[in-house]
Amino acid sequence: MSAKSVPGRPRQRAATRPTDRRAVLRRLAADSVEAVVNNIRTWLFALLGAVATLFLTIGGLRLMWANGDPGEAEKGKAALKSAAIGYALALLSPLIVTVVAGWVK
Questions:
Q1: What are the φ and ψ backbone dihedral angles of 52, each rounded to 5 degrees?
Q2: For residue range 34-86, what is the model confidence (pLDDT) as tens digits?
Q3: pTM value?
Q4: What are the angstrom distances between the C-alpha of 99 and each of 4, 12, 92, 93, 104?
Q5: Residue 86 belongs to what H/E stretch?
C-alpha cells in the first residue's frame, strides 16, 4: 500500500514514541545549578560573539565607505572598538558566569 492519503480516511502517522508531558519537561529541566550556569555561559558566549561580529562588520563597512569624511571614519573606528570590547567580554564570559555562580552558592 502506498503512503498516499486516501480521501475520507485519516492519514496514518509513522511509528513514534508516545510523548509524555513529564518526560518532555524532564528533558528540558536542568538537573542542577551547574547545568543552568553552563547553559547561561554557552548562550552568553554565543550572543556576545554574534553582537561583536555584527559591530565588526558595521565598523568595517563604515570605515570603508567614509571616503575621507572624518566624522564617518570616527564612527567606524568607534564601532570597531565596540567590537573589540564585545569579543573581550565574550572571551571572559565563562569567567564572569563562574564568579557570579560562586556568589550565588
A1: -65, -40
A2: 788 778 878 888 888 898 999 999 999 999 999 889 999 999 999 999 899 98
A3: 0.59
A4: 58, 53, 11, 10, 9
A5: helix 70-104
